[in-house]
Design goal:
Elements: H1 8-15, H2 21-34, H3 40-45, H4 53-62, H5 66-74, H6 81-94, H7 100-107, H8 113-125, H9 128-138, H10 146-162, H11 166-178, H12 183-197, E1 199-200, E2 210-211, E3 217-220, E4 223-228, E5 237-245, E6 248-256, E7 262-271, E8 278-286, E9 293-296, E10 301-304, H13 308-314, E11 321-328, E12 331-336, E13 339-345, E14 355-361, E15 367-378
Antiparallel strand pairs: 1-15, 2-5, 3-4, 4-15, 5-14, 6-11, 6-15, 7-8, 7-14, 8-9, 9-10, 11-12, 12-13
Helix pairs in contact: 1-2, 2-4, 4-6, 6-8, 7-8, 8-9, 8-10, 9-10, 10-11, 10-12, 11-12
Length: 379
Amino acid sequence: MPTPFPSSAELVAVLNSDAELLQKAHACQQLAVVGEPASVPALAKLLADDKLADYARTALELIPAPAAGTALREALANPDGHRLTGVLDSLGVRRELASAPELCRLAAGPAGDVAAEALAALGKLASPEALECLRAVLQSPADGRRLAAGHAALAAADGLLKQGDAKGAAAMLGALAAAKLPPHLTAAAVALASRAARRQIFDGKSLAGWEGDLKWYRVAEGAVVAGSMTQAIPQNEFLCSNGQYGNFELRLKARLINGKGNGGVQFRSQRVPNSREMAGYQADMATEFWGCLYDESRRNKFLAKPDPAALAKVLRPADWNDYVIRCEGQRVRMWLNGLLTVDFTEADPGVVPSGHLGLQIHSGAPSEAWYKDIEIEEL
């Protein structure tokens, strides 16, 4: 049975005693786990100690009490470079928004470790004031801090995207692109901009934004579940998106339970009047047809198929598979688990290059097709 940690009060008593250095360091580590607001003053005193400052700072970083953030902000007055950069990092990790003015001041200093760490902390804050500081540095062509600001801007955009602020992320990435920094940063910004442009069209919790026969569709474990493992499916069923899309890149994950059954992802499709069917392109999902482009309820034939040997190397028959479907004008491309399976150009001028999306479960024996992480980028 593991030995329980001492209480926060007992650990503070160690810090305030004449205990050996190792004991105090160990007490700081334990306070990072059990520390309470009352332990903050004792830890704050150690921020000026050459040997214990990093231990104390790490504990304050992890103690959720507002007093811990205040103690770290007050430590910014310490001129020691090593200890100061550590404090800057902790303020960023905690996202202490009140520290933004002081971080901006330190970031405005000469290029060096302190300025670089202050910029990195501003990237973690990603507050309006922090973002304005980063933009100011990026816009200064001869500024030696621009590379550090570029990395911080990338982190800020990523953080904004995770918070659901795609617009803010796109603005930050625009400033980064305009700065004309080294290629690796530009490439990372382009990749992140693509993520920012995508939006979830299935929230993982409900079928809002979709319509279909809910006897055959439900949400479980963050996925759309189509079909049933206990009932035969009398006819094809489709869960249809309310929205219509023309030029886009659609990304999602799909699987067939036990690798059996038949499903598919409709796109540029329409409901067939007085029918359960949808007519249009389908990215197929079935034992022999993964990665194929089928024309559902229209020409009723396969328009393109992948090389079977190449497909066998990447297909995960009973597990999640990544589908990417990209439509640009008359050109349709599909990737399955990174393999380009279809590169098709529509020759029929009568085929409308837009329509709904649909998630299919095919008629037949009991089976389930699962779909999740559905996101679209309109081109």
